[in-house]
Amino acid sequence: MSTTTLPAHRSMPIPQPMGAAIVVIACALGGTGSVFALSHANEWGKMLDTRVPYFDVQTADADTVRPDIRSAAEHLANIRQMLNPAIADLATTFGVSRQAIYKWIGGESTPEDDKLERIRSLSLAADAFQKAGVTRASSFLKMKAFEGRSLLDLVAAGQLLPEHTQTLIAEANAMDAAYSRSGLAKSKAVASDDWRAELSIPGSSE
Prior knowledge:
Blueprint: E1 22-25, E2 34-37, H1 41-51, H2 57-63, H3 72-83, H4 87-94, H5 98-105, H6 113-132, H7 151-156, H8 162-182
Helix pairs in contact: 3-6, 4-5, 6-8
């Protein structure tokens, strides 16, 4: 009579609540997952600090150039606020009627892509003047500072570059410095900006 030995019965492990006694760190320490006891958190926490990459969100945001998503109407509002051009001058610059300009300002219609790009370039120039603290930027719109062409002429030709705007900003700063040195700022006479007309032109013989 033969006897058969049955395999010993193995009891199943009792599941433990994950949040109370242990914590699972997946893919943090180079593997597919590791289990560490919370009671030894001070020890394995140091290993985690050295292996998890650090990403500085604030620094990344500061270095990232954000796209300009302003609408044509918003760009035109920016231009009018900082540069104060006549509607007729805008119409001539963008090659449209004054009625079209009013419709763009009111958001009733949208300019074509080539005209929108010219509007945007002038709006960016307005941004640069504002950032530089130029308070009389409107007086530089028609200054023939670039081989007989003005800022508006360059915009109309689609050739306005940031360097052109910076040239005018430098000229504005030079005018302000000359005004301060002249002593006119301390004069009791009624202040006037007439002397700052288009006499000082970058690149001219004067």
